[in-house]
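tool_log.txt
---
The assistant was asked to compare two proteins side by side. It first ran the structure predictor on the initial sequence, then on the second. Raw inputs and outputs are pasted verbatim so the downstream comparison step can read them without reformatting.
(1)
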Amino acid sequence: MSTLPLVSWLLSSTEPALRWRTRRELLDLPDSDPLVAADRAALPDAPTARALLAGMRPDGTWQVRHYRTKEWIGADVRYADFSTTHFVLSYLAELGLDRSHPAVTLAAERYLALQRDDGDWADAGSHYTHFSCLLGQNLRTFTRLGYRADPHIQRALDLLLATERPDGGYLCDMHEGRYATRAVKSCIRGSVKVLLALAELPETWSHPRASRLVDYFLERGGIYRRGTRTLVNRDMAATYFPTTWRANIWEVLYALSVMGYGADERLADAWMELDKHRAADGAYILDWTPAKPWAAGVRGQPNEWVTLYALLAKKYAGKLDKAEQICQVG
């Protein structure tokens, strides 16, 4: 299947967020386009968005029992389950909702108020202060929700850009100093989430810290252990949606492509690795998604979300060949 039929497939989705984002991000249609406007208006009442919002408590939280302690979590920022507040807000942002929705505003502003003075979010009962994957995830989420100008987001961004590590990546502070005789390497999961966040913020791309993070990925071919063609971890062997704490191959290629590095020759093998996840018709397979109502499709089947992000990555990298150029369609 060529790209254009894939675009038609995305535009026929029952999920208005997929249609809306395909038209806006892949086809570059303006907000004034009637079909873009119609899809935008349908976002809050879409089944997935309604199911997620139905799980919100009156105080603006999503809470679940901790898998180990069995206590209820979600009222704070503990980072243990994909169905707690930060991850649900992240998924709602993917679905196109933003602060114009009253429920999103309630949940988002309550969560933002939990930020620590240094700009991070962490378990109030823990001595740990920096969780790089959570910080990156939150920065991307709240930027997409329309909070870029909020002081909480600027503090989070200032912290990210001021955080240095010898290899250029990011790491949760619980792992620092683990070894007595050697330095701890950065965490690929945290580094990917920060990379995704910076991809949403073009004003950061010329910052030296952003450049060092880009180099961290390019020097390892995006998804490999440095100096090898061995995948950096098992996450990179699969595709996931929505984003959680895992590192995702499409996340790396999408973020680097948005930032202008997708055509770098050091990523050639990573692009081939991504295409191993294509079905016979050209669509991309979803390997993992949570259970309903967070499910974004059927595991092991062609998936609209993974396909959209793969096509967006290729678009920004200039990797859609002449036979696959995306035309503007209504």
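(2)
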Amino acid sequence: MSDPGKAKRVTTHTLQEMKAEGIPIAMLTAYDFSLARLVDAAGVDVILVGDSASNVMAGHETTLPITLDQMIYHASSVVRGVQRALVVVDLPFGTYQGNTKGALNSAIRIMKESGAHAVKLEGGREVLGSIQRILSAGIPVMGHLGLTPQSIYKFGTYVVRAREQEEADRLRADAKLLEEAGCFALVLEKIPADLAREVAQSVDIPVIGIGAGGGVDGQVLVLHDMLGINHEFNPRFLRRYADLHGTITDAVGRYIEDVRSHEFPNTDEQY
């Protein structure tokens, strides 16, 4: 485990250097102070305060219900626990689509009120105006193409995107548009591995994949998924590095048993 107090802070420039040197970028989500502090101390490069908080923290079916105020709350909590990682915050649904002034105001609020380092938006050419306006204020922007969960009702499914030629061509073009606009990095979600590799090689900015194969410049997973806290979500791309669902359930069960049997607290655990 690295010591974040001695480690150099990760910046957008750091990620650019990592791509140039062929060093894969490790990115995870976090939504609260305690877990963000652990993830940061472990040495992750980027922490995404994802709108997936709508699912894993609030229990919603989709990412759409979470609000800007709620995202700022989660982001503020994460920033207080981080000393090294770059903190990127999702702009939630409805705060940037079709309204460039609203997009800028939303991004400014996130940066000022949470202390985060960058924002992330879903979409390509359809949100280009919002991206350009946010960038004009000096706020770093990470793009997101492929499966864009905020558009779930448009797609109607979470299946792999860009399998067909037309959609793949559009994704290639959008990746170039986002790079030319000034995005510092790009997330590609749930697209064919060959296409993701091609895009990563065609742009100079780092490309982070989730369900996009190993030919990109880094990977991102939802923390609660990779730690095995969530058991209901089982996509092919997910690797579970722990089974905290079982660990926590067992610990709570033993606590209940000890309370019922008067084993807790014992004489050493009272004043």
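---
observation on (2): Strands lie at 25-29, 46-49, 86-90, 118-120, 141-146, 185-189, 207-210, 218-221. The two ends are 36 Å apart (CA to CA).
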